[in-house]
Design a protein that fits this description.
The chain has 703 residues and is an all-beta fold. The chain contains 3 helices and 38 strands. It has a 22-stranded antiparallel barrel. The protein has a 4-stranded mixed β-sheet with strand order 5-11-12-9. Strands 6, 7, 8 and 10 form a 4-stranded antiparallel β-sheet that branches. Strand 28 (531-552) and strand 29 form a beta hairpin. The longest helix has 10 residues, at 12-21. The radius of gyration is 25 Å and the shape is globular.
Length: 703
Amino acid sequence: MQHQPSEPRLLPLALACALFAAGHGTAAAAEPDLAADANVQTVKVTGETTKDGYSVRDSASATRLDLSLRETPQSVSVVTRAKLDDFKLNSISDMLATVPGVTVEAVETDRVYYTARGFDITNFQYDSVGLPFVFGNVTGNFDTALYDRVDIVRGANGLLSSTGNPSATVNFVRKRPGNKLAAQAGLTFGRWGNKRLDVDATIPLSENWAARVVLARDQGDSYLDRYALKKTVASVIVQGSIDANNKLAAGHTYQKSAATGNMWGALPLYYTDGTPTSYPRSANVGTDWSFQDAIVNSTFAEWTHGFGNGWTGTATLTYNRSPNESELFFVSGIQDRATGLGLTSYTSAYDSIFKQKLADGTVNGTFDLGGRRHDLSFGASWSESEIDSRSASGPDTGTSLPGNAAVDGSYPRPAFGAGVGAGGYTDKRKNAFVAARWNLADDWKLLTGANTVKVDTRGSSYGTSSYRSASKTTPYAGLVYDINETLSAYASYSSIFNAQSEMDFNRQLLAPVEGRTREVGLKSDLLDGRVQLSGAVFKTKQTNSPELAGYINGLDAFYVGVEAESQGVELELAGQLSKNWNASIGFTQMSMEGNEGQDVRTFIPRKTLRTATTYRFASMPQLKVGASINWQSRIYIEDAVAMVRQGGYATVGLMAQYEINPHFRISANLNNATDKTYLKSLFWNQSFYAAPRNASVSLNWTY
């Protein structure tokens, strides 16, 4: 049976988008950072600003304890602001495609899955606060303009993500106001009429208050026939101090991703005789009337209080509202090579509205015991998430699409009716955690913790109601041994738990997913901490993972729970190798098997290499050049009709930047420099081609 579009059957596309939005208003567990003038207050997110280098020394993404990467007993990759700017990684997908061990499965133009260590990434957090997706994909093309850096913690992040998958947690660290007036703006022009405007400004409002304003507008056509995208991003954060012990912050974020001619599903990969189809790179099943508008609105307020003696507390309130509207065209079936018949139409108008309320509180500090000082962090959160949706299928469902009718864009827009309620969900979660870092000896540190969660989910899907209540306490443990001043060894264990929304054949929610990760490794600080070097061996297991099993009446998807295990190695180096040379390189090799020892999720490459480097010439310091290479091994999928393979391939990116004067610089980027042709994903039996070689030129101004 061919995979059907998921949107009208499980509420779906929009909820993933909406849950992605959940973190956009949540603020960090921040602590005060006094400038040279004691009367001027800035607030920092843990870790330094990353506009110059390719690594950081500290991160609280794994434990909420502000530890160095070497002190953290899990694999952590960091994508800094410098790397985002150098290679114009303006979308979340472009950014994650550069991370070691992470794959980006773009199943449609505006719907994507992310994986790490073989499992779907469903944990997106913002300044270490947020909730996992209820569904495993992201709908919409969201921007990186809002962030100073992104931390990716691989494995089951048991302390901060008690629910989700044992793959990775992606923590987006927001840009925050500084204490001085600063501004920058950029204009970018690219192939297919693409244009982008960026504005980023810090504005002091008084001695103790400042604002950060981020704006971006990105629009243009595409290498795909009829497809165009407009993105609008706007964010304002105001923060400051009431007195020496109390800091406040508040902000609002708006993002809109508006696509026309977008795909719902993609190109069929094979004919009925099992031979592969062949389409031009520009082929698109989207029509001239199809569209999808995904909007994120998020508002937050944050209070940070200093209790004294090194203890601080942070409380955050967040409200998210995310509407989604679309009219979509799907190509169903498998085409007969000889007759050109076998493909049929499926159309749908789908609207949804997502609302979420989130409260989060944490306390951090130190205490003395046994003649040594130890670190402690604890907190709790509460959330309520609601989604309602309406779907209207076109009366033309099942219309034959002979020859090239599926990709020529000529299919007429049907007369959509008023539609019916596709369903709705209410998800309530209560969560509490505690983490301690025990200073056992000068060279031994033990991290212990636990996270407890209770999830109540009530919902319906096309008239069938279901309810599930589940709770779990998940432990975390990590041990770090400092071999010498620059090298440490570590071991860690973490488990995870996720009450899921997928339904079985009887339209009942599947039992919760459970997983765990074991990891051992080495980490080193080189060149006075400017370079981070790490290696890890991991073993990750997940039980009751949802897998598509079929369709009720040919349309309504149902799932079964399966078991899978991945194990492998990861190697990474990132940082400033010399005054003029930044680099990051990461290699991952893994295997993945089901409960009977068979290969599973074969659409995920077993080997990946991610590299990026820039160099500034000492003889001409105004000039910086760079290159990136992303390589993956072969992948394939197989069903009852055909096996589809894609060999290993590499993509190359090039960049150059020239500083005209201290305020102006011009840069150029070349993507897919070797013009490699490849499919974006083999997630299922439809896919589409990646973009051919394309270039962009940017002019940037800094005040």
